[in-house]
Amino acid sequence: MYRKILITTDGSAVSSKTACAGVEFAQQLGAEVLALFVAPEYQYPIYVEIIPPSYPSEEEYRAAMQRAGNEHVQSILESCAQKGVRAEGMTAFAESAALKIVDVASQSNCDLIFIGSHGRSGWGHLLLGSVTNKVLSHTKIPVLVHRLIKDPRPA
């Protein structure tokens, strides 16, 4: 059925729960996993004429985001290792996380994208947009949307 599954993470509690479900799904199918974290591109401050000394350089920003991405992806890789699922991880940079997810899935020959949904509706959805909805509208690869019934954060 599915041989290679792309599992996305943004480091949130929702994406961590989604990743766990994705790894279990991959184990059941005997599929391999590509774990992906997409970091936003570096933004120069446009509101000042001189960049403040405390503002990180592009190199510092990219290094910090690479470390954060590696941490988020590492937890998925460890989960895969515990369950005997072959996996690799990747951190990418892009203006649009959704388009990068679609591109990576296509370039890496993934045959399923396993992604979470925060479950926002109404104004929250309209104002914040949805990476999941954008992925759904831009890919030809099947997408499995994992939606949590309750908030994973502690009460």
Automatic annotation (TrEMBL):
Q: Where is the UspA domain?
A: 1-145
Signal peptide span per the entry?
none
Which Pfam families does the UniProt record give? Answer: Usp
Write out the transmembrane intervals.
none
Q: Which InterPro entries match?
A: Rossmann-like_a/b/a_fold, Universal_stress_UspA, UspA
The Swiss-Prot or TrEMBL record describes its family as follows:
Belongs to the universal stress protein A family.
Question: What name is this protein filed under?
Answer: Universal stress protein
From which organism does this entry originate?
A: Massilia eburnea
